[in-house]
Amino acid sequence: MKKLLAIAFIASLITTSCKEQMETNVSTNDQKPDLETDVQFANQAHQLVYDMVQNVGNYNQLLEKQNVIYTYTYQTPDGKTDQSTEMYQFQGELSYGAYQKHERTFPDLTGTIVQGYDGTNYWLNHNNHNILDEQKLKRVAFNRPTNYYWFTMMPKLLDPGVNYDYIKEESIGDNTYDIIKVSFESTDNSLKDIYQLYINRDTKLVDQFLFTVADFNKMEPSLMQMEYENIDGLLIPTKRKYKASDWQGTVTDAPWIYVNWTDIKFNNDINNQDFQNKAI
User: Fold this and answer.
1) 79, 96, 175, 237: least surrounded by Cβ within 10 Å?
2) pLDDT beneath 50: ranges in the chain
């Protein structure tokens, strides 16, 4: 399965090494989302996640949309904001982001910056000039799959290599939740992320979830809370906020970090060529 990544407070951290020519090659992953309708459930927790995904929209339905363009905005408690026009091609998981504001992502650069993943390489340009700086390209190699994964996370929870464990039933306010632990198989004995989903029994939505950032040895969780919108028949968690927590879902007194997705449009007139780096 693709790397599982978190957002915002780790946006300054970086993964993936660059090649000498500074255009990072991506290791391909042959594992694809399970698009079969005749699913063999590993256990009750697996079926609960499956039912949730069918409710919000599975990966097959996402592929039928072909692509998406939307505005991505996140703001930290210190008032710094990043805002980008995001564009993804679901087949091949191609990714593009044009940053109109980048107060946390490359604040040293003035003007629009554009990041992309064309299916083979990560790339970056600034004011239509190609950027070959190794550290900046590592940052792109972090941002592109991060933003893509969070947008497609719910259907991708049915990817191969995912393990499901039922933790408990819990009541929070007027809602009853089935709490599911989601973990990921490792072929190289490296740490993998752990998610803890709170699936609302009435709505079959993940109202909140705990997540770790194993790539940076951060195994203490943060809590993400979400609100959904129906966009062309898919339920998309467009309003998000998160902060540090414990495994009981008790958050700290720190202020929230806010993330919003707006102006979401599927089935746009774009193709794979639009994800190529056209800078000089």
Assistant:
1) 79
2) 1-31, 34
Place of tokens 């087949």: 91
Contact 96, 88 (CB under 8 A): yes
Which strand (E) or helix (H) includes residue 49? helix 44-56
For residue 208, which of 158, 254, 253, 256 has the smallest C-alpha distance?
Answer: 256
The chain-wide mean pLDDT, for the chain, equals: 87
pTM of this structure = 0.84
pLDDT digits (tens, 9 = 90+) for 126-151: 998 999 999 999 999 989 998 999 99
Q: Three-state SS for 152? A: helix
Q: Which of 245-248's residues contact partners 24+ apart within 8 Å by CB, and which partners?
A: 245/210, 245/221, 246/220, 246/221, 247/196, 247/210, 247/221
